[in-house]
Predict the 3D structure of the following.
Amino acid sequence: MRFTSVLYKINFGRHFKDTWKTKGVLKVPREIPKWMIDRGIDIIDPVQQKRKLEVTEPWVHPNPRDPIWGVPEKLMDHADWHEDQVHMFGNETCLLLGVKQAVILAKAQEFEGLPPSVQKLVGRVEQKDQDELVQRIIMQANVWNPAEDRLPKRMDRQDVGWNYKAEWGIKSSDTMKMLLNNLVRLCFMVTSPHCPTLLHDRKMSRGHYTYTHYNFRDTPLHIQAWAELATWSRQPLKPFAGQDVIDNTVNHKFPDMFPIAPTIDIKKQNVHQNANKTGWKDGFGSPHTHTLYLVNLNKWGTSQRNSRALMFCMAHSIAQAKELYGNDVTTLPQPICVQCLHSDITTFHLAFFQLNTLDFKNDDGIKNLVWFDSNNQLYKKISPPRKLFKSTKYDDYNHEVFRKILAMFVNGLSLKEEEISQQRVAPTS
Amino acid sequence: MAMTQLTHLVRSLTGILQRTQFMASAVIEPRCDMHTTGPSLTGRYTGRKVVEKPKEYTTRPLRMVQTGGRGEDGRVAIPRCGGGHKRNFRWVDFQRDRLIQPGRIQMVERIEKIMYDPCRSARIALTACGEDKRYLVATDDMEEGNIITTIKEIPRLPVRPNPGDCYQLGALPIGAIVCCIEKFAGHGAMICRSAGTSAQILRKVDGRCVLRLPSKQEISVSQECMATAGRVSNMKHQDVVVGKAGRNRWYGIRPHSGLWHRKTGVHGRKLRFKRLVTFNEPRGPGQTTQKLTI
């Protein structure tokens, strides 16, 4: 007979039942066997006695301080944990309505474009080969950097079914940081012949942290601001707008957000401090915030990114105001100004904030001022569809963008008066 | 053959008992114990389950894992599940009256965005009110920027329903078109959540409302149950022709077994008299699951 798969199957049920018939009954001996007693084995009747469990010392690892045995700290044991929750604005706070919501939180009137004092400085400081140097910086950040990191899975929304090969190269975060760092360095280089006291007047810090808080309509709002780069000046920035513009802000009305609260998307936290930190210790020679440089390592829209820049500028200005005039200040003798530049891989957005008042109880009275100059695309990064990153093309260099960044950098410096030549430096594209 | 049919029946019965036990809990909190996708896919969850279970309501998309129709024991519990495009779960809030402040009767919210949800046939609306954001099943008339209300009051005279607003069934007139209807007051919407569906109020009797569902079935629910006025969005869903086997595979539906199955009473278009179904009280927490074994 052919040995088929059906015949090969073992009937475990039948085998189990057969075995159970013979071995299923437990035979308990009437008497304890003599050889057991002779060997001296401890015999315990489970019905009469309970087995005594031997208590041994618990085993301890020879190195009990090894982090493998570490227990994470509970949030409630944090030194700054409070029972009451406060709104905390941070790096990751993405506001639902973007700038429309942030201007209410900052009580700021919004303007488009550069402030007039900065517009005058565009092209004031120049170098012959600055465009070539900026293009070299772009190439260094995008192409010449020899980093080989595993890049995240690539998906084209217009061509969803196409599976891109895994690639190794330069991460977008590294590109952004390198681009920003080198552009600021170039600003220093281009400005130094025009300003002998540059290094005395302008300082730079990396990864700067600021913490401050204020009462927005009787609810406390805390802000933690991180900046990739920040420049500091010996003298405070001059106000962007004069007293007439400040007085006109009384008539400005904010857009209606009903039924949404202005503090939506700002998460509440138990861990907070009643502190005001500019990030510098007392006695630092250049305590006035000049410019913040932020990197947009997120996939937000322009409005959300601008709102973050605005809130961080406000945090720095409030921290400075409290440091100079005390924690309870509401009216300032002089407005405090902070600039901000935040960038994508290709696009740069400029923000200018002027703090006129710290009275956030309601929407009446003098308001602060903010200027946004968004969507300045320095260059275009064209990745052909269904091709690898190495076939990316860099095109459409815009020389105006670096001139704006320079104008922003130069704002507030005492520059040498030079003869402005008839023929301006021609931009190389 | 009979053995396998019986095991299928048993498995589906145990599944139903387990699900009804979850549905019986009567609280007005965001319920994360059971993440359902769409009603048409409730029977099989398209072979996916939600892995993250946050305690508080969140609009962040939650991770889903493909089960392939396999149960806890690793064996196929629900057939024809597997593959398909990856999906993230958006926790849709079916309890429209959850955010009404205590002591108040109504609330107002604004629609920020109407978006696609891979887990259901209807579209979802991201709404915001105060400091809260949530997803709701979008009705046909909802547009971005609209303001919608939820009213928890039964006045003496019935109100004219505004499309997109949510009322208690006792407040609506006879003949009103509603969707996202609760079976038991305070339990969350369960009926007519799928694309293009709607029910009609037929009559009101003794503190209860009788509705006609899309399947012509009539049900009787308490007049305190909440319902949204209008039809569910994405009316064109029923006109979509799958067209090819590949599209079904994109949905995560695997092919039939290919074997011949004898037709049962489920097949055919025999007209059956549908009796009125009354939803009186939800099953209490004392109900336990019963595992049927042979």
